[in-house]
């Protein structure tokens, strides 16, 4: 995004290059216009990768499930692609590691899962997509606004995405940094609005960002994607961007060292946007958290909202109920499993199967 292309001086417009150079020169030394070194976003990426490696270590597919993909990885091999096509751990492992399980949050007083789920990922594919996007967007934003503001934007947006997800996706385990990443996109968009006077090509930039967000939210209606976390993160980041990413307007930068009366650092519209956004943000967190811990099901108050996260077609189903099966053991270590959702059954010769192994077979039958 380029700085404002022209400024009125002595009744004539300066060229775009002169204006940009003048603005950067006059803004030098002001905290809002420092050039920061990006270190926090790369640390976030490393932390997510480390957590995924630990999750795979705990998963231990060869011992707990037996039916694994990429067996040569040993303890770090993935669950069967029929169970987890993203090349990752089992749902039981994700729940153990802190995945967003609404029942445990509400009835088990495990509210920390609203934060921990943002550091877990369903598989290698999920991790790569989120981390590459985070690096592409986050590093640039941290250089421009510093690690404190971008760190807060990332963490709070992820928390906001978890709240909306918990209100509407009541039965599935939800994980991923997508809500936080969408929060950075929301912050980028609101930052243009609140710092309107310093940018050129504003309309083109806004349209581009809106299209990027729309395409990604459109992909979120595919099965297995938590689009509520995306929308919650984006909305939280959009409001938070007005609060955290505000900058002095062009006139103050231009005249801050001039003798005589100086203009206000921020324009009136910036103050209004800052105040209104902060109030909406506080209201969202208060109402959302109260509703969540009172076990409110958002779907009962919005009968069509589930279509925002998954649209059923002839190719796939949007049934998000967790896999549930009945099991019976017969002579000869023969285990019979029946999925309660679709009635499919399977018989397996297994000696003392673990809970993880039974759950893995149940998930495959219920797909």
From TrEMBL:
All residue ranges annotated as the Peptidase S54 rhomboid domain in the record: 110-245
Enzyme class: hydrolase
Compartment(s) of residence: Membrane
Superkingdom field: Eukaryota
EC number in record: 3.4.21.105
Location of region: Disordered: 1-23
Recorded family membership: Belongs to the peptidase S54 family.
Name of the molecule in the record: RHOMBOID-like protein
Species assigned in the record: Arabis alpina
């Amino acid at each position: 995004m380029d700085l404002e292309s022209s400024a009125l001086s002595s009744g004539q417009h300066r060229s775009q290059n002169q204006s940009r150079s003048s603005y950067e020169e006059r803004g030098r030394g002001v905290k809002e216009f420092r050039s920061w070194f990006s270190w926090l976003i790369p640390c976030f990426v490393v932390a997510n990768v480390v957590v995924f490696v630990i999750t795979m270590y705990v998963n231990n597919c060869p011992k707990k499930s037996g039916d694994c993909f990429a067996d040569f990885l040993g303890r770090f091999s993935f669950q069967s692609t029929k169970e987890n096509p993203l090349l990752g751990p089992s749902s039981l492992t994700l729940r153990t590691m802190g995945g967003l399980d609404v029942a445990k949050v509400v009835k088990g007083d495990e509210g920390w899962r609203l934060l921990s789920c943002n550091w877990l990922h369903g598989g290698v594919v999920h991790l790569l997509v989120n981390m590459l996007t985070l690096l592409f967007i986050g590093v640039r934003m941290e250089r421009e606004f510093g690690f404190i503001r971008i760190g807060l934007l990332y963490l709070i947006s992820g928390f906001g995405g978890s709240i909306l997800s918990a209100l509407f996706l009541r039965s599935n385990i939800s994980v991923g940094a997508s809500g936080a990443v969408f929060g950075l996109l929301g912050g980028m968009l609101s930052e243009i609005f609140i710092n309107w006077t310093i940018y050129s090509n504003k309309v083109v930039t806004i349209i581009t960002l809106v299209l990027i967000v729309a395409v990604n939210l459109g992909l979120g209606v595919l099965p297995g994607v938590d689009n509520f976390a995306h929308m919650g993160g984006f909305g939280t980041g959009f409001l938070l961007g007005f609060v955290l990413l505000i900058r002095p307007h062009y006139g103050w930068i231009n005249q801050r060292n001039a003798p005589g009366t100086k203009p206000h650092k921020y324009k009136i519209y910036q103050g209004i946007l800052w105040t209104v956004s902060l109030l909406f943000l506080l209201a969202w967190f208060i109402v959302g958290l109260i509703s969540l811990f009172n076990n409110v099901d958002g779907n009962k108050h919005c009968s069509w909202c589930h279509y925002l996260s998954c649209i059923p077609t002839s190719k796939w189903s949007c049934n998000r109920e967790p896999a549930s099966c009945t099991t019976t053991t017969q002579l000869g270590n023969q285990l019979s499993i029946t999925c309660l959702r679709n009635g499919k059954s399977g018989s397996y010769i297994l000696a003392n199967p673990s809970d993880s192994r039974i759950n893995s077979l149940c998930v495959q039958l219920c797909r």
